[in-house]
Design goal:
Blueprint: E1 2-6, E2 13-17, E3 23-25, H1 40-47, E4 56-57, E5 74-77, H2 81-87, E6 96-99, E7 120-121, E8 124-130, E9 146-153, E10 156-157, H3 158-163, H4 169-172, E11 184-186, E12 197-202, E13 205-211, H5 219-226, E14 238-243, E15 250-252, E16 261-274, E17 277-290, E18 297-301, E19 307-312, E20 319-331, E21 335-345, E22 350-360
Antiparallel strand pairs: 1-2, 1-11, 2-3, 3-4, 5-6, 7-10, 8-9, 9-11, 12-13, 14-19, 15-18, 16-17, 17-20, 18-19, 20-21, 21-22
Length: 362
């Protein structure tokens, strides 16, 4: 499936590409394409849609980034053997990592050249979009975390990057230096990410013509390698722009939420005499279901007149497991010792706490 967003900046609509290369409207199925939309569960729902039955968009206009709410923009430098040879650089022994500070832009949005720039440059890259949490991932499991692939124009200012000292980041992260798109191709449509042709034209002239076959470190290894240093994917975070009048300063809208929750489980207590004291064990194991996990609120920001954006934090899980256990020893002398553990576990959060208590009564 090829996912995309179309429309004016801040008011993009969700869409996809059909078999004939035409844009179809997805807004009747999903309100937006966000980082959360690219989780394995939500991608299955999207992929089950009959694309040919969706409304056809004859003139989609501007194409935006394929999704909103990207958490991290991590890049790998000198990862193509032909590019390393072209620059005369030594082939790296380990992947060279750097960050783009840029907020991603649409594939055809204007690139703003920084003031004083003399060496702004372009470079076609393969974008790998992570759809599930990846930390300390094995090489064998690395590609299981990929939601899809897209094209990235790694715009750079080479003087800032190479000749001004420090890290590469200041030459890579200038505003608008992150065009992405035009769409995201889901991983199920890419049989081999190491067999993809890539090219780049500037003003109608072909300047780059390469392939992921020449990668020094392949996609699976890069996911495995990067996950040793940082967690890839921030679950359920989204920042989606939407039009709205009368904006001023920074103002959050109020919202009332009714949160209903049910719990079903077992609780047990057992006590036994031990020496001159009483030993007690208590335990609980339960299943909890949240009927409403929506915590989205809206806010307006002055620097974008007539616009607002929605911020959604890590969504609560619908279902979670509850557990608690405690042990207490009460002595005839009035001394008691107790230890307690409590936890709540779900697919998006982990909470646990423990405490110990020493008490003496006289």
């Amino acid at each position: 499936m090829k996912l995309l967003r179309y429309g004016p900046v801040g008011n993009e609509k969700p869409g996809c590409l059909d078999a004939q290369g035409k844009v179809r409207d997805l807004s009747g199925k999903v309100s937006a394409i966000t980082a959360e939309s690219l989780s394995p569960e939500q991608l299955k729902t999207l992929q089950a849609i009959d694309v040919s039955s969706l409304p056809l968009i004859e003139h989609p206009g501007r194409i935006g980034t394929p999704y909103s709410g990207m958490g991290k923009f991590i890049c790998v430098g000198l990862n193509y053997s032909d590019h390393a040879a072209e620059t005369g650089a030594e082939v790296p022994k380990e992947p060279i990592l750097f960050n783009k500070w840029s907020r991603p832009t649409g594939p055809n949005d204007a690139v703003v050249i920084p003031q004083g720039s003399v060496k702004t440059d372009w470079e076609v890259e393969l974008g790998v979009v992570i759809g599930s949490k990846a930390r300390y991932v094995s090489l064998a499991d690395a590609l299981k975390h990929v939601a899809g692939y897209c094209v990235v124009n790694d715009v750079s200012e080479r003087e800032y990057q190479i000749e001004r000292g420090g890290t590469w980041d200041k030459g890579k992260g200038c505003d608008t230096f992150g065009p992405i798109g035009p769409w995201l191709v889901t991983a199920d449509e890419i049989a081999d990410p190491q067999d993809l042709a890539m090219w780049l034209d500037v003003n109608g002239k072909r300047f780059q013509n390469g392939s992921t076959k020449t990668m020094i470190f392949d996609v699976a290894y890069l996911i495995h390698y990067i996950s040793q240093f940082t967690t890839l994917y921030l679950p359920a975070y989204a920042e989606q722009a939407a039009a709205g009048p009368g904006t001023f300063a920074l103002s959050y809208s109020a919202r009332d939420v009714t949160a209903s929750r049910s719990e079903l489980g077992l609780r047990s207590d057992a006590s036994a005499a031990v020496g001159d004291g009483l030993f007690t064990l208590r335990g609980r194991l339960a299943w909890a279901h949240n009927f409403n996990t929506d915590r989205t609120i809206g806010t307006t920001f002055q620097t974008l007149p007539g616009a607002s954006f929605v911020v959604a934090g890590a969504a609560q899980a619908h279902d979670s497991a509850l557990t608690s256990a405690s042990a207490e020893m009460q002595f005839a002398s009035g001394l008691s010792l107790a230890a307690t553990f409590e936890g709540e576990f779900s697919d998006v959060s982990r909470f646990y706490a423990g405490k110990g208590v020493v008490r003496y009564a006289w």
